[in-house]
Amino acid sequence: MTKPWFKNYPVGSNDEITNNRYGSMLDLLEQSTQRFAEHSAFQSFGEELSYSQVEELSKHFASYLQNKLELKKGDRVALMCPNILPFAISMWGIIRCGGVQVNVNPLYSPHELEHQLNDAQVDTIVVFSSSTATLAEIIENTQVKNVIVVELDDLVNKGLPSDPVNSRIENVIPFLRAIEEGKRATFIQPELSHSDLLFLQYTGGTTGLSKGAMLSHGNIISNILQYQEFAKNMIDEGNEIIITAIPMYHIFALSVNTLSYFSFGTTNVLIANPRDMPSFVETWKHTKATIFTGVNTLFNGLLHTPGFSDIDFSSLKLTVGGGAPVQEAVSQKWQEITGKRIKEGYGLSETSPVLSLNLGTDSTYIPGIGVPLPSTDISIRDDDGNPVADGESGELCAKGPQVMQGYWKNEEATRQSMTDDGYFKTGDIAMIDEHGFFHIVDRKKDMILVSGFNVYPNEIEAVMANMPGTLESACIGVPDERTGESPKLFVVKTDDTLTENQVTDFCRKNLTGYKIPKQVVFIDELPKSTVGKLLRRELRDK
Fold it and tell me: pLDDT value at position 188?
């Protein structure tokens, strides 16, 4: 069926994909490491691993998981690690032995980590040494029995310092020792197919607890092939260099940077700490990057870092922004400095993630999220689930082979997220213009986007419900120059001595940094409907 956006497809790009190139992600690994064996696959702190080294090291790690830890196909393994070389080796090792990777933010609070490990039923975790203090707080409340610890200097060998493993965690397994022990065992590759589960990608939920989006081998393979078909005019296989600063545990960098561009034979330059902007800029100066992906706040931060404008950007041909709307002023400034504007994409954890991409030329670029990728359909619908007319706003609903299998152990949430005819309801409000391009008009009002990460008020309010001296609370998003938005918390207290700092400290102990309210306001009563439903809209209006 012809769609109004097909006319905007890049020259030569088909509107459908053939999804039989890879039988599983293992096939993708094997084909890529054979084709690009001696090419540089990953670089970190000036050291690099070739594609053949990735193949060898990941096989040893998979062998350790299989033989020493008795990991079976379908078992969940948590990976709690920043952008360093062991992330890539651990990921491919988990994939090779048929495990399901549970991606974990290394900055999670104990409360968040405990929920995710228990919900995913994890008994093995690969964890960065600096995050072991958090793990130690809650490990006794989980099923975790195998702790493999990664250090900053692993596979780099430059004497980089790492925080020591927390003394409360016993019998830890050093990552490098696991590889050495795996090397001495015989690895037996399990049979894998498109339907096998690959990742549990946790995303915020309106209940206050994050849900695990079940992404299969087929989901991720589809999205890789969709992106490749759509952007093939901008992919020079074996000759690209991509900079990965957004976290690899986030679905954007995981699927696009770490997996898609791996299949293209790309050199992936990993930035372990993008908050250190001067060091980040210095790394870029010595990198002839051709591709860069990021979120609005990252672009903005780089533009305001001394030395960034002095970089030679002559090799840069594509910058992709996602995770949150890219501000037009930021994109224009980026184009002034680099010579290329930011091309915006759109997607979610539940969609592997890319649904649409805007690759319009710099001279004729229409800001927005562009058009659906091949084999993807987008339908804009009203509150009753009926399609709206072109030019009218409604909820963006999507269908395609990249849409998740469902939410882990949560059939009700899965049912609520889908339309009767099989479209995933994104919760974002969008429209299609007269040119056949899609635009995000608004989003579900309660969700807050902090530096590209979804923050759900119910989660913060659920944490606050456990704080002594408070009756109830409500959270909204307010504009923030640095992060786009930030949480603002309204609290009804029962203890007159309670202070704003005490509330903030309580949140800090139970929430990841970007979820902590920047503002706390005490209020006598929260606005509610006649049936007792909290009216956050009235708080925003005030």
Answer: 97
Compute the distance between CA of residue 295 and CA of residue 103 in angstroms, rounded to an integer.
19
With vertex at residue 165, the alpha carbon angle to CA 163 and CA 167, rounded to the nearest 5 degrees, is 130
Instruction: Please give the span between the terminal C-alpha atoms of the chain, in angstroms, as a whole number.
Output: 47
The H or E element spanning position 335 is helix 328-338
Yes or no: say if 77 and 94 are a contact pair by the CB < 8 Å rule.
yes
Pairwise CA distance, residues 466 & 477, whole Å: 22
**Which residues lie below 8 Å from residue 125, measured CB to CB, with a gap of 6+?**
77, 78, 79, 80, 104, 117, 135, 144, 146, 147, 148
Q: Count CA atoms closer than 13 A to 37's CA, side-chain side.
A: 2
pLDDT in tens, 157-190: 999 999 999 999 999 999 999 999 999 999 999 9
Residues shown for the chain: 542
| Cβ 249 vs Cβ 512: under 8 Å | no
Residue carrying structure tokens 């049936």: 531
Q: Is the peptide bond before 274 cis (omega within 30 degrees of 0)?
A: no
Handedness of CA 173, 176, 177, 179 (dihedral sign): positive
Higher pLDDT, 519 or 533: 519
Residue type, position 138, single letter: I
The token duo for 385 is 């689930």
Instruction: Provide the phi-psi class of 450: left if phi over 0, else alpha when psi is between -120 and 50, else beta.
Output: beta
CA distance 293 to 259: 14
Residue 55 CA to residue 208 CA, distance in Å, equals 40
In angstroms, the CA 339 to CA 318 distance is: 10
Rounded Cα–Cα distance for residues 2 and 5 (Å) = 9
Q: 139 pLDDT exceeds 90?
A: yes
The answer regarding whether domain 448-541 maps to CATH 3.90.550.10 reads no
Instruction: Indicate the angle between helix axes 328-338 and 296-303, nearest 10 degrees.
Output: 50
Least confident interval from 66-70, 118-122, 230-234, 446-450: 446-450
202-232 burial, b for 16+ CB within 10 Å, e for fewer?
bbbbbebbbbbbbbbbbbbbbbbbbbbbbbe
* Order of all β-strands in the sheet with 484-493: 470-480, 484-493, 519-522
Residue 417 · residue 424 · CB < 8 Å: yes
What are the structural domain ranges in the chain? Answer: 448-541
Specify the pairing of strand 354-357 against strand 342-347.
antiparallel
